[in-house]
Specification:
The structure is a single chain. By secondary structure, the chain is α/β, with parallel strands linked by helices. A 5-stranded parallel sheet has the order 2-3-1-4-5, with helices on both faces.
Length: about 170
């Protein structure tokens, strides 16, 4: 089976959707950020001590360890490296969970755990840059605003059936 790579901005629901998709399909999923932390790296510490470029290297390394999992929840910046996009394209399909910045701001209003999330900082600029990157590499885009997790999971399942992925066909 090809892998499903969920991409989107931080707070777009990638991990939540991956978890629910995993349960619905009875398949494993990997969250890239969790995988990095399981490798004994604290993401906030990486950003503080080594910087964003170092984190992106850890992220690329973690992505390469996901080959056995059918569902992958990526980090919001996974698209910042072309080698990551190339890896995802070669190993599966990329589904962009498009969520408006207003909804993301509401979801992350009290979230202090994300190194690149600082309300009122350059998040608007980062969002607009990344949206273009997500759109450019996504095989499918799913609009997430005002939709339940169950609706999003069903749409992904429908895409997989259409592509013959669930039955192992191409």
């Amino acid at each position: 089976m090809k892998q499903l790579f969920l991409i989107g901005f931080m707070g777009s629901g990638k991990t939540t959707v991956a978890r629910h998709l995993s349960k619905t399909l009875n398949m494993n999923y990997i969250d890239i950020d969790n995988l990095i932390e399981e490798m004994n790296y604290n993401i906030s510490d990486i950003f503080k001590e080594e910087g964003e470029d170092a984190f992106r290297s850890y992220e690329t390394d973690a992505l390469k360890l996901t080959r056995q999992a059918p569902i992958i929840s990526t980090g919001g910046g996974i698209v910042e490296r072309s080698e990551n996009i190339h890896f995802m394209k070669n190993n599966g399909i990329i589904i962009y969970l498009r969520t408006s910045l207003d909804i993301i701001k509401t979801r992350l209003a009290n979230d202090k755990s994300r190194p690149l999330w600082k309300e009122g900082s350059q998040t608007d600029v980062l969002f607009s840059i990344r949206v273009k990157m997500y759109e450019a590499c996504a095989d499918y885009t799913i609009d997430c605003d005002n939709r339940s997790v169950e609706e999003l999971v069903q749409e992904i399942i429908d895409i997989c059936r259409y592509k013959g992925i669930l039955e192992g066909e191409e």
